Amino acid sequence: MVDRASSTWLLAAALGMSPVAAQTTAGSQFDPALAAHPSVRAALAFVDAHFEQQVAEWIRLTEMPAPSGAEGQRAAYVRTQLAALGLTVEVDSIGNLWTVLPGTDDGPRLLLAAHLDTVHPLGTDLTVQRTDSTLHAPGVFDNTAAVANLLALARAWRAAGLRTRGEVVLLWTVQEELGLRGMTYWLDHQAADLLVAVDGALGPVHYGALGIYWSRMQFTGPGSHTNTSRGKPHPMRAAARCILDIYRIPLPDSTAPVGAVYNVGMIRGGRVVNAIPEEVAFTVDLRTVDPVLLERLDSAIVAACQLAATAESVTFRREWILRTAAGGTPDQLAPRATHPLVLTAVDVLRYLGWSFDGGPAAIPSGSTDANVGVVRGLPAISVGRARGGDQHTLREWADIATARTGTRQLVLLAAALAGVDEH
User: Fold this and answer.
1) Of 12, 193, 204, 294, which residue is least crowded by CB atoms under 10 Å?
2) Per-residue pLDDT at 257
3) How confident is the model at residue 422 (pLDDT cuts 50, 70, 90)?
4) What is the mean pLDDT of the chain?
5) Each residue of 66-88: b (16+ CB within 10 Å) or e?
6) Which CATH number fits domain 211-324: 3.30.70.1230, 3.30.70.360, 3.40.50.2300, 3.40.50.1980?
7) Which class for 271: exposed (0-12), middle (13-18), buried (19 or more C-beta within 10 A)?
8) Which residues are registered as beta bridge partners of 118?
9) What's the CA gap between 152 and 55, in Å, rounded?
10) Cα separation of 324 and 301, whole Å?
11) CATH says 7-209+327-418 is which class?
12) How far apart are CA 271 and CA 311, in angstroms?
């Protein structure tokens, strides 16, 4: 397991930044003067000058199939591009790949991560349709935009000769969509002081972790022909009874500070019309940021299934599909709301002219690779890659111009957090 550093390292001296101007927000490590530093300015200029090449690469990556567990083509492409920059690439046994932009001193080890995988199965038409302002294709937003952002950052960093006190690790993870498996494996074997996941839409910085429990509820019995079915054990009736009872389990009011949601999304069972099915199963998706509430609702759901199975004289078994821990309620995460990592990310976006449209600049929730860090006590956030929408559907789209903002954000964030070397 990672030896997690305490948050005290985030004092300005530890970051090695020169106090050349007043900070935007007390506690933030971003100084607007940082953008005028010669190497940072050169990196930003590189992003701007080569943005059309970034878009072309974004399209090329989108059209490479990368369902979870089959990210090999994209991974090979990223590896080739990094090697062409003269960077050393490491790959682990699960398929994660990363490179290290070396630090010059004892600054923090910053991890920037984008997941390679999408939810779309092999055989999906991934042809990108481009308009003047948007790209349209399955996976173009989640998370191919971030894969391209991170590659653009690597090129800008090298072209500008940017040096930071702390190491900057660029990581492309696998199997994020299957329960953050790649990041979990990486943090089990590698260390970082700070984690920034590049995932989601540009806008509020996410510093919490949404707990997600996916379960398959299975009911089994001996079965019977319809002609002899009266009074017999019945898995389908048990499943139907349980589904209705699940939806009677009370949830917090929609105005409550901490909410929760559950859903029965898939159901299967039976092979013929004229018989009691021997097995019926359905899935439950349960989500909340509150660890206590997550366990309480999960227990209530399982109890409803057990009671339904008993009432219908069948056997019940719960199978886990996905289980990611909840990071905590807003009150529990209150110290993180003013953590320098969060404040720095927000200030970078504000410097770039991003509007939060009157909403919060930071949100105590999240459903990205950053969750793995949050639940381990590692300072972790997720930041957006671009604007977009309809992710996980065939209608997925992304706004082209905002991907440039997303990449510029990464340049400034990495320079601020890892500390530009002034020597």
Assistant:
1) 12
2) 81
3) confident
4) 93
5) bbbebbeebbebbbeebeeeebe
6) 3.30.70.360
7) exposed
8) 67
9) 10
10) 17
11) alpha beta
12) 23
The strand pairing partners of 382, in sequence order, are 197, 206
Any idea where the domains of the chain sit in the sequence?
Answer: 7-209+327-418, 211-324
Full-model pTM: 0.89
Task: Give the helix/strand (H/E) hosting 34.
Answer: none
- pLDDT, tens digit, 9 for 90 and up, residues 37-73: 999 999 999 999 999 999 999 999 999 999 999 999 9
Environment class of 43 (CB within 10 Å of its CB; exposed 0-12, middle 13-18, buried 19+): buried
Average pLDDT of span 343-354: 96
pLDDT one-digit tens code per residue, 222-248: 999 999 999 999 999 999 999 999 999
Calculate Rg over the CA atoms of the chain: 24
Residue 18 binned pLDDT confidence (cut-offs 50, 70, 90) = very low
Q: 116: left (phi > 0), else alpha (psi -120 to 50), else beta?
A: alpha
State both tokens at 186: 């990486």
Q: Which residues contact 408 (CB under 8 A, 6 or more apart)?
A: 44, 47, 48, 352
Q: Any residues with CB less than 8 A from the CB of 238 and at least 6 apart, and which?
A: 219, 280, 305, 308, 309, 311, 312, 314, 316
Angstrom CA distances, 263 to 55, 214, 283, stand at 37, 10, 8
Q: Can you tell me the distance from the alpha carbon of 154 to that of 101, in angstroms, rounded to the nearest whole number?
A: 8
Look at 35-44, 101-110, 169-178 and tell me which has the smallest mean pLDDT.
101-110
pLDDT at 106: 84
Burial class (CB in 10 A: 0-12, 13-18, 19+), 260: buried
Bridge-based pairing state of the strands 275-276 and 205-206: unpaired
**What is residue 8's predicted lDDT score, i.e. its pLDDT?**
28
Q: Rounded CA gap, 220 and 280, in Å?
A: 7
Coarse DSSP helix, strand, coil percentages of the chain, rounded to the nearest 5 percent: 35, 20, 40
